[in-house]
Amino acid sequence: MKQLVILGGGYGGLRATQKLLDEKAVKDLSILLIEKEPYHSLKTEFYALAAGTVSDQELRVHFPNDIRLELKFAKIESVDLKEKKIQLENEEMVNYDDLIIGLGCEDRYHGVPGADQHTLSIQSMRRARKTYHVLQSIKANGRVAIVGGGLSGVELAAELRESRPDLEILLFDRNATILSSFPDKLSNYVTNWFEKHHVKLMTKANITEVERYRIFNHDEPIDVDATIWTAGIQASKIVRDLPVEQDNIGRLITTDYHHIPGDDSVFVVGDCAASEFAPSAQLAEAQAERIATLLATKWRGEAFPEKMPKIKLKGVLGSLGKKQGFGFMGEKPMTGVVPRVLKSGVLWMYKFGSNS
């Protein structure tokens, strides 16, 4: 019996589970999936939960029901790679033969004083839910700061504008433009949308300190009712504490076969794995499918292929509220209604198609 343990029920962990359960050639399989929440969460939509335009019930997906899959809902304390053991809360220990680490990420505060204590987050269902409660309790005509003008910050700012049109929204980014990693056409389109909808863009920002009701940009204080942090991520602390090679944000360096160098029993997926690509659900799922195939190959006693094919991602889709969007499929930029409809369709298929 092959004892596989999967840490984390996010996009990578869930997709690896589904793929392995569908592998007809794999016999005597036992998967233990360890996740602190009793459901998979649609993390890409946490911005809408925080803004108050969807409920958390809408962002839940049930895990597969299969006799070969055991679900354990518990907090993971540490991973011992040498002894092949997982330390859970309440001193419970779990052994593994093979392991997939998919524990996601945490906010990265870049050493800004007060940022970890006085900012809200959308990195988990629980934290996004807390952010929603804080935002909806702000009195009329209040002011909200969002730090980080990447995809998460942009989607959150736009959704919050629809949810609370009375609020003054300040979107801070250290670059000269928001969405600096996107094509100029998309960055310009989103910039114009924000100008039209009265979201104030604070570009070339340098957040030097955060207090509970104040944020400092270039050391200049700005009074706010709440600050939300979307200015970068790092691998989860459990992963950062592992005694193996990591990149500058704590993600584990892996081989072309997605396992830790020198240990083909430990695979890494999603935001825990260093990659040339920007973190995304799409990337995590692509990695997970490859890992599942490699594990099946290993369990059959066969050698891994000499060379792995390059991962090809389809594109990126972003929302500007419920009616407009932006993104690109392949090399083609898209703006307006079409990318928003496409994103809704992708989300529907994920919830009710492959994960039904």
TrEMBL record:
Pfam families to which the protein is assigned, alphabetical: Pyr_redox_2 (PF07992)
Protein name: NADH dehydrogenase
GO molecular function, one term: NAD(P)H dehydrogenase (quinone) activity
Cofactor requirement: FAD
InterPro entries listed in its UniProt record: FAD/NAD-bd_sf, FAD/NAD-binding_dom, NADH-Q_oxidoreductase
Keywords for this protein: FAD, Flavoprotein, Oxidoreductase
EC identifiers of the protein: 1.6.99.3
UniProt xrefs under Gene3D superfamilies: 3.50.50.100
Catalytic EC class: oxidoreductase
High-level lineage: Bacteria, Bacillati, Bacillota, Bacilli, Bacillales
Protein family according to the UniProt entry: Belongs to the NADH dehydrogenase family.
Any one Gene Ontology BP term: aerobic electron transport chain
Location of the FAD/NAD(P)-binding domain: 3-287
